[in-house]
Amino acid sequence: MSSPPLSVVVLAAGEGKRMRSHTPKVLHPVAGQPMLAHVLEAARTLEPAAIHVIHGHGGEAVRAGLPDADLHWVHQAERLGTGHAVRQALPHIPDDHQVLVLCADVPLIRARTLRRLVDAAADGVSVLTVSLGDATGYGRILRAADGRIQGIVEEKDATPAQRAIREVNTGLLCLPARALRGWLEALDTGNAQGEYYLTDCIALAHDAGLAVVPVVCDDPDEVQGVNDRGQLAAVERACQRRQADALMRDQGLGLADPARFDLRGSLRVGMDCFIDVDVIIEGHVTLGDGVRVGPFSRLRDCSIGAGSEVLSHCELVSATLAEDCRVGPYARLRPGTELETAARVGNFVEVKQARVGAGSKINHLSYIGDARLGRHVNVGAGTITCNYDGRQKHLTQIGDRVFIGSNTALVAPVHVGAGATVGAGTTVREDVAEDSLAVDRGQRREISGWRSGHNDH
């Protein structure tokens, strides 16, 4: 027998007052993505017929932050409780569907757990539960003598004996749409918060003779909700540890300390890669075999070839490195940087929109922007390409085997021919021919007996 169609309802209307932020709570990031995006990613693995996101005040910002065409946005004008929120979506859900209710502030929920929850519901009801050492703030699961769930009581309505229960409601449930429609109509606000509780539907399902199946989650981190900054930080670290463990297990990544690693995007690694402490990976990053990344570095949208090394305190953004390159320490590669095989970019060097040829070196204290460097070029310390004239950018071209002396300024557009040498301190304003020496030095003058005014006191 095939499973009934599935509709997903995501509760995202919470105000998040305890976050003390102008940003809607569900848009606060975990591992570089809004919390809500994590929940939606897990939900989509179930291939539901529709995903309905319930939003309240500030919903325009939420919709702008997640402009997904496949989402059905539902406005909850009044915050009258979770039951009232789900009721807003029901007119858009056929009676023969299962309804999976998710919480937008539970970002670490796994797709496989949601599958278990949906499968357990069958034609009845399923509830995701977890046992906590400290259950403060959660609704308690009420079980009958035979172990079946007969209801959920919210903490503010619970008796002292009920508050001692450690099995709690995670807020994730799966229910049949036709029956749910009637149960929601039967809800009232006779409770401590004066709201329509979705959880009251569980007792109504039990009283109607439907099976209420508990699905127990054995990982409290997976169902941790986020209501304040402290919980957000805890979820972030749990997510990072989960990602680190997966990278070490599935791809063989070496990490100096998994607790000091941050992935805010996707990372693909080859064999024998190693990442030191306090490295941040953003966007889409690929590391070839044997790549090593030093501590306190940030890589965003980069591809790094086999055998290359990024030393400490470097920032690489939208850069491409071929095999056996070395970068840093304290180097910055900005968008459009391409390093060919065995290129070197050293300490306090900034490169932008430039291709550095195979075996070329920019080892110290230089800025190379909007440039094309050939093979085996040596760029001396303090060299800059003067690529901007105040209105537009211009290109500097440097041929193979060029030697650029220290403290040189290359005023673009300019071309230095292959094999040329540029003497230290030269300002290159015109093209330099191949295999020539360019020197631009004024005559040295010494004025004896000179005393500057600041010495006269």
Automatic annotation (TrEMBL):
Location of the MobA-like NTP transferase domain: 8-130
Stretches for region Pyrophosphorylase: 1-229
BP GO annotations: cell morphogenesis; cell wall organization; lipid A biosynthetic process; peptidoglycan biosynthetic process; regulation of cell shape; UDP-N-acetylglucosamine biosynthetic process
Active site: H364
A Pfam short name: NTP_transf_3
Binding site for UDP-N-acetyl-alpha-D-glucosamine: 11-14, 25, 76, 81-82, 139, 154, 169, 227, 334, 352, 367, 378
KW Nucleotide-binding (keyword) present: no
Lineage: superkingdom: Bacteria
Cofactor note: Binds 1 Mg(2+) ion per subunit.
Binding-site residues for Mg(2+), renumbered to this chain: D105, N227
Residues that coordinate or bind acetyl-CoA: A381, N387, Y388, S406, A424, R441
This enzyme's EC code(s): 2.7.7.23, 2.3.1.157
Compartment(s) where it occurs, according to its Swiss-Prot or TrEMBL record: Cytoplasm
Region described as N-acetyltransferase: 252-457
SUPFAM superfamilies: Nucleotide-diphospho-sugar transferases (SSF53448), Trimeric LpxA-like enzymes (SSF51161)
Major subcellular location class: cytoplasm
InterPro entries found in the cross-reference section: Bifunctional_GlmU (IPR005882), GlmU-like (IPR050065), GlmU_C_LbH (IPR038009), Hexapep (IPR001451), Hexapep_transf_CS (IPR018357), MobA-like_NTP_Trfase (IPR025877), Nucleotide-diphossugar_trans (IPR029044), Trimer_LpxA-like_sf (IPR011004)
Stored NCBIfam families: glmU
Classification via PANTHER family: BIFUNCTIONAL PROTEIN GLMU, NUCLEOTIDYL TRANSFERASE
Family to which the UniProt record says this protein belongs: In the N-terminal section; belongs to the N-acetylglucosamine-1-phosphate uridyltransferase family. In the C-terminal section; belongs to the transferase hexapeptide repeat family.
Protein name stated in the entry: Bifunctional protein GlmU
